[in-house]
Amino acid sequence: MRNLIIGIAFAFIAFVPRVQADDASDRLVIAREIVLQTTTEDMYRTALETTMPLIRNSFQVSIPGATDAQLDEAMDLMMEIMMSTYDDMIEESAGLYASRFTLAELEELQAFNSTPLGQKVLQELPGITSEASVIGERLGTEAVNANLGRVQAIFQ
Length: 156
What we know:
Layout: H1 2-38, H2 41-62, H3 68-83, H4 86-100, H5 103-113, H6 116-154
Helix pairs in contact: 1-4, 1-5, 2-3, 2-6
């Protein structure tokens, strides 16, 4: 009897990590699908394009005498470099989803994305993201400009 109980205990211990590993793997697969639904390459490019004017401005300030042609070439290269991170961003984002949601929650989210409302959300998301980035840039600039004196006072 004792051997039977020990055998069952060992079988249970051996089985539990595999179930957890399978669950984590399943979560990651579904999370990746969700991220791919919500972040296409075009969406990623659009999000990056909203940051390019800030990067260009930073280059202009830090590289006096840079020509427009040089800045254009630098921005093209920066976009190429940033777009090369797309696959890694998908994988890491999938990991974030998989670590925060249960398998059941991910399945529910995936099912929602297949509904008419979910499809509309996915369709509208790039525009919302782009507009929100512009709003964030505007509000950030206004806040910094309104408080520039306070920041400058630190350096006096």
